[in-house]
Amino acid sequence: MNAREKILEAVVALLGTEAGAGFTYDRLAREAKVSRQTLYAHFPTRADLLVAVADHARAKLDADRLSLPILEAATGVDALAALLAFHVAFTPRVLREYRAVEFARSTDPELMKAFGQRTRGRDQLIRLVMTRLEAEGRLQPAWTVATATDFVTAVVSASTTYELLENRGWTPAELQERLLRVFTRSLLTPTEGGTHDH
Questions:
Q1: What is the DSSP letter of 17?
Q2: Beta partners for residue 188, in sequence order
Q3: Please, which of 98, 111, 153, 195 could form a disulfide with 158 given CB 3.0 to 4.6 Å?
Q4: How far apart are CA 174 and CA 162, in angstroms?
């Protein structure tokens, strides 16, 4: 394992603990068994580090493969259903780490900006689906791509997912079905028959 991988694995381990989001670079260097200089050479800022952690988790869990059905869906409505299937297949496996990253994003404008500039990730997939729904005339006029993306992003956050799965006892299948029902009714225009599809 090279130094970069050691650092990323150590961050994931730290983020998996209750106090993980508040780790220092000194503590991380000790946990990764690398020097602080090595740590700063790979990740000059905390934003660089946490974006790399999210990308590392995506790669490790093969998120690109898991998200292919979203990209290959026949319609925007099908892409929305595939997005939620991806969410319940991926997010529960990284809940602790992603909750810690979400907390850090909410308190650090630099980190929020860095995540917004990523070319791949959950936010980008959601925006892609909302853009497609709008282009196909299925996004209700009350929503813009930006506001629909914000809404879906907030609802499928790791914190909300954790609350529903861990604290409220929902199963992943229940979460997927209920989210699809909420998004279908709140975001989609009805079809000619007056239904919202799904």
A1: S
A2: 139
A3: 98
A4: 14
Summarize pLDDT for 3-62 with one digit per residue, the tens: 999 998 888 888 766 555 567 889 999 999 999 999 999 999 888 888 888 888 878 888
Residue pair 149/100 in contact (Cβ under 8 Å)? The answer is no
Provide CB contacts within 8 A for 170, sequence distance 6+: 164, 178
Tokens 């299948």, located at residue:
173
- Rounded to whole angstroms, how far apart are CA atoms 76 and 129? 6
Q: Which amino acid is at 18?
A: E
Which residues are CB-contacts of 79 (< 8 A; sequence separation ≥ 6)? 70, 71, 73, 128, 129, 132, 133
DSSP label at 21? G
Alpha-carbon dihedral 77, 78, 84, 86, rounded to 10 degrees? -150
Determine the length of the chain: 198
CA distance 145 to 56: 28
pTM above 0.85, yes or no: no
